[in-house]
Amino acid sequence: MDNATQCVIVKTVGDIRHVMVSWIPSRFAVTGKTLKLKQNNDEWTDGWLVTDVGATLPYDVVNSRERDYTKQRTVSDV
Question: Per residue in 50-63, pLDDT tens?
Fold first, then answer.
């Protein structure tokens, strides 16, 4: 399976700048590349610009850890 890379992606619509941190397939994680992303409602939106590229991990690891934030409170509060 492919690797995934954590990226900061930005889309500007009028005066509004949308910023998102997302894990995307590594082959698309190129600073300055413009992407078309599939949203949760299965609609595609164009114009997302990769501004920063971060860590790369195997897709299986990223996928298995995607919901870890839901357990953060139970493991961090003493």
Answer: 999 999 999 888 88
Q: Are 41 and 64 in contact (CB under 8 A)?
A: no
Per-position b or e across 20-45, b if 16+ CB within 10 A of its CB: eeebbebebbeeeeebebeeeeeeee
Residue 21 pLDDT exceeds 80: yes
| Domain edges within the chain | 3-76
- Residue 67 CA to residue 47 CA, distance in Å, equals 27
Spatial distance between the Cα atoms of 50 and 61, rounded to a whole number of angstroms: 22
The three-class DSSP label of residue 40 is: coil
Question: Which residues of 1-78 form beta strands (DSSP E)?
Answer: 3-13, 16-25, 34-38, 44-58
